[in-house]
Design brief:
Layout (H helix, E strand, L loop, with lengths): L6 E5 L3 H9 L4 E4 L15 H12 L4 E6 L11 H11 L3 E4 L2 H10 L5 E3 L8 H10 L3 E3 L6 H9 L6 E8 L11 H6 L17 E2 L9 E2 L15 E2 L4 H7 L3 E4 L6 H10 L1
Parallel strand pairs: 1-2, 1-11, 2-3, 3-4, 4-5, 5-6, 6-7, 7-11
Antiparallel strand pairs: 7-10, 8-9
Helix pairs in contact: 1-9, 2-3, 3-4, 6-8
């Protein structure tokens, strides 16, 4: 994979952040609406805003990918057809999906829509990648835990027509590609439905049962502790290795972050 063919894929939580990502060099931007997206805290996009964003991006040769990567419940399924049809009407370039049922509904409602399988799918081997391709996926977003050699093996053992997207910058979830119940357990906010309170980033101490009230800090380094979560990812010095491994798209995490972040990080990559 040639370096100059790598796609820089930037996040956008609202119109301001979307504009910043486009102006500062994104090849594509991913965003969400009020439903079916894994980030419920940003403002996200209503239908009119989505149409305006797609029009603005396409005028500048930038693609727009729309997320529908939550794990939907039964009562949400009847609303998905309208979601897909509005995506088609707005002209989005692809839908990002985690749930196999939603993937099949996209094929039913919009057979020409490009489908990207989200990191929430948990893709860690070439067999899964192949089967998702056979089901209609044009792109797979790999699990964030994969080392470069395993990415290269997936690339070598899948169709060259299958795009491979990998996260290169931002938060690394404590759990397996976002499949985490910690937030729901502690504060009743479901991470698998875009409501994560990020308790893995809170400050924690240890307490020994026979000494209640005595709290013992656990140190990692001068920046704090990392009991639950790993440090944030930054792969900007390893883009050549990602290209050699066969990655197609470089995904920047951060739809809940600021327009400043969207601009600076997109520009850097």
């Amino acid at each position: 994979m040639e370096m100059n063919k790598l796609e820089v894929l930037a996040p956008a939580g609202d119109e301001e952040r979307f504009g910043a990502a486009v102006r500062y060099g994104a090849d594509a931007v991913y965003l969400g609406r009020k439903q079916f997206g894994m980030r419920s805290s940003p403002l996200n996009f209503d239908f009119e805003q989505l149409c305006n964003a797609v029009r603005y991006a396409h005028e500048r040769n930038v693609k727009v990918y729309l997320t529908c990567n939550t794990l939907p419940k039964n009562n949400e399924i009847p609303h998905f057809e309208q979601f897909v049809r509005e995506a088609v009407e707005a002209g989005v370039d692809a839908l990002i999906v985690a749930d196999i049922g939603l993937l099949m509904l996209i094929k039913k409602y919009a057979p020409d829509m490009e489908i990207h399988n989200s990191t929430q799918t948990g893709i860690v081997n070439y067999v899964t990648a192949r089967e998702l391709y056979n089901l209609g996926a044009k792109r797979i977003v790999l699990a964030r835990e994969l080392p470069l050699d395993e990415i290269a093996e997936i690339r070598a053992k899948t169709s060259p027509d299958l795009d491979i997207e990998a996260f290169v910058h931002g938060a690394m979830c404590v759990s397996f590609s976002g499949r985490c119940l910690l937030s729901q357990y502690l504060v009743n906010r479901d991470a698998n439905r875009g409501e994560c309170a990020q308790p893995c980033r809170w400050g924690y101490h240890l307490m020994e049962e026979k000494r209640p009230g005595e709290f013992f800090p656990v140190y990692e380094d001068e920046k704090g502790t990392y009991i639950l979560n790993s440090k944030d990812m930054c792969m900007i010095e390893h883009l050549d290795k990602l290209a050699d491994a066969g990655v197609t798209s470089l995904k920047i995490e951060g739809r809940a972050k600021s327009a400043y972040y969207a601009a600076v990080v997109t520009n850097a990559y």
